[in-house]
Each structure stands twice: as structure tokens, then as C-alpha cells.
Amino acid sequence: MKNMVTKITVLLCALLCFTANAKKFENLALTPQMGWNSWNNFDCDVNEDMIKEMADAMVATGMRDAGYQYINIDDCWHGERDENGFIQESKEHFPSGMKALADYVHSKGLKLGIYSDAGTKTCAGRAGSRGYEYQDALTYARWGIDYLKYDWCATENVNPIGAYTLMRDALYSAGRPILFSICEWGDNKPWEWAKDIGHSWRTTGDIYPCWSCEKKQGSWSSWGVLPILDMQNKLRKYAGPGHWNDMDMMEVGNGMSYHEDRAHFSIWAMLASPLIAGNDLRNMSKQTREILTNKDIIALNQDKLGIQAMKFIDDGDIEIWVKALDGGEWAFMFLNRSDNKTTYNYDWQFNIYKDDLFGHYVDFNKNKFNWRNLWEKGTGTTAKKLKIDLPAHGVQVLRLTPVK
């Protein structure tokens, strides 16, 4: 035992010395990360067989081919810490061990993510990482973990910048590139300080599968699609390759209507949020699968410019969001927030788009574009006024390509 403790002490000291030059891993999340997470649909009911089945389903449904990479285990995978303080997986729910599970997920051409917390306990009361950051990071590296979602429960009197920087340094010192997803709920404005710490940061509290609601959870609330969208006001300047505003895991396929799901997915894509599915991939409907694998919408999210869409026009229940794309192309999203379907008329020549923040500009009197509807598959040109049908709680998304 004494020799073991000595070895651990030497190892941790070496890691601490290495931390002097620590930083977050570069070349990760150059476009918003895409994957799946267990929490929205399964809460604490996680086990290795289910995770393997999700990996299988991500391949079989075409999600991997559409760009999804990460299979993320959220809270409740934990066992106890061993006598030396190293966290163990639950032997009941992960009897083969996390390393074997990571190997299985990797064999499918996917990556495995895991969850911990900056406090003494996770949100579900399991062992948090506070005081064990370097040991936990080393454990994740040994297991072959590729992604860490790091929560913010049980953190009374904890400085968030210090806590997240500490885990960033621990991950870097462990040596395995791990995407660092900060889940601090936007309480301390992480967009102002987290660019050099994490690859994404939550901007709101938890999501709830509804269009426009607040689900009160005692001392805190979960939020529907529109409230989360509205909370992104003035945050777009902080997003870009390697550092993203995270609007939380998606609820596509978890009980909203078809048009609400379609709008939800489009909004997350246009605003360059990570696309992390939260449904049961094993038995999703054809409609849900088609939404989640719409490669045209995904391409907007994964555009290499990494510009978060701007709300260009607010016409009451109708909003127009614009996203500059690589190669001089554009994406226009027409959002109908209301309970009623409507037909909207739009004059391209009357509206000159200018984005002072990122230096993009287009005058449709001088530049002509052909457009393609990414949901309905219609086509048209900006040389003519647009007349577009918008479903209640729905969107239409057009991709504009310059006429050569």
C-alpha cells in the first residue's frame, strides 16, 4: 500500500509540474460537436448494454454518416472511489468496465463521452470531481474517454473560472485530447471567460421538450425552445471555431410536434450550437430520423466560417435569422413563433443585410442568388419577391448561392 501511495504521489506531482504550460486541447470542435447524450431520455437509467445499443443505432440510422460522433454517458455511471481516491464505474451497470465500453464505441468509428461535476457531488448525488480533478482526468484518459461534460451542482462558494480551469489543466496534463464541455448553465456568464478553457459552454438552464414554456423545478427552471432561443441575445460575438455557445442537448423526438422538432433542429443548427441528440436512437420514428439526419441543415451548423446566425428582422410572430456561410453563400431562416400558420411575403431587394460584427454584407439589388428550400426542397431566385408558407411553430430555411 505504501508503495502504491508513493507511486500515485509521484505521478500526481509530475502532472502538476506539467500544468505550468497547460491549456485546452486545440483542433477539437472546430465546428460544433455532434453526438448523443443519455440524460434527456434516460436520466440515471444508464448501463453498458444500452450505450452499446446506442452506438449501434447511431451507425445503423445513418447518424454517424451524417456527422454525429460522440456517444455521451451523462450522470449516474459512477461507482465508489477506491482506497487511493480513483473513481470507479458502477460494477452493476458497467460490469465490463469503461475501458471495454470505450473500445466498443471506438470500434464503431465513434467516440465516448462521460460526465462529472465541479462540485463534491454530481447533480444526481454521485461522486463529484472537486478535490480529485487530476485523478479523474487521468482515469478518463486511461479509459479512452473523448469528451467530458462538466456540471455545476454542489459548488457553493466555488469560483467557476478557477474550477473549470483546474479541470482543463488536469485534462491537458493527462495527455489524451478530450473535448471539454462546460455545463455551468450560464450562471456566471461563461461566454465572457471560457473561450480558452472549454470547447463549449452552456448558456442557459436545462432544456424541456416544449415549444414555449417554463417548467419550474423548485428553485430552478427548465426551458422550452423559444425561451432558450431568446436567451441567446447578444451572445453571438463569443462563438466561433473551437468555442461555442451551447443551447443544451436537443429534444427532437421527445414529444414535440413534427414542425416544432423541425424548427428546434433548424434553430440549433443556425445558431451554431452543438448538435447533441437526446432521444432513444433505437426506436425513433422515420420523421425524427429524417430531421436529425438532414444533411443540408447539418451543413449550416458545420460551416467552417463558424458564424452564429443573427436575428435580422423581428416582425412580431415572424422572425428572419441570417447566417453567413463559406464561399459567399447565405442561410435565411424564417421562423413562425405563433400558433397559426401563415403566408409571409419578403422582398429581397428592399432588405440590405449588414453584419457589422463579422463584416458580412449583401445587397440583393447588386447581387443575385438562387435559393433552395432545405426542408421543402423548392427552389427560386432573389430576383423575385418571396412568398413562403410558414407552419405554426415552424420554420422554412433557404440556402442562397450566388449566381455566377
Short description:
The protein is an alpha/beta fold and 404 residues long.
Secondary structure blueprint with pairings:
Blueprint: H1 2-18, E1 34-37, H2 39-42, H3 48-60, H4 63-66, E2 70-72, E3 78-81, E4 87-89, H5 98-107, E5 111-117, H6 133-143, E6 147-151, H7 160-174, E7 179-182, E8 200-202, E9 214-216, E10 221-223, H8 225-230, E11 244-246, H9 258-270, E12 275-277, H10 286-292, H11 295-301, E13 310-315, E14 318-324, E15 330-336, E16 342-346, E17 353-355, E18 360-362, E19 369-373, E20 379-381, E21 386-390, E22 394-402
Parallel strand pairs: 1-2, 1-12, 2-5, 5-6, 6-7, 7-8, 8-11
Antiparallel strand pairs: 3-4, 9-10, 13-14, 14-15, 15-22, 16-21, 17-18, 19-20, 19-22
Helix pairs in contact: 3-5, 6-7, 9-10, 9-11
Structure description:
A hairpin with a 5-residue loop joins strand 19 and strand 20. Helices cover 26% and strands 24% of the residues. An eight-stranded parallel β-sheet has the order 11-8-7-6-5-2-1-12. The model has no long low-confidence stretch (mean pLDDT 95). It has helices at residues 2-18, 39-42, 48-60, 63-66, 98-107, 133-143, 160-174, 225-230, 258-270, 286-292, 295-301; strands at 34-37, 70-72, 78-81, 87-89, 111-117, 147-151, 179-182, 200-202, 214-216, 221-223, 244-246, 275-277, 310-315, 318-324, 330-336, 342-346, 353-355, 360-362, 369-373, 379-381, 386-390, 394-402. It is of the alpha/beta class and 404 residues long. The longest helix is centred in the N-terminal third of the chain and has 17 residues, at 2-18. The protein is globular. It has two domains: 2-301, Aldolase class I (TIM Barrel), CATH 3.20.20.70; 310-402, Sandwich (Immunoglobulin-like), CATH 2.60.40.1180. The chain is built from eleven helices and 22 strands.
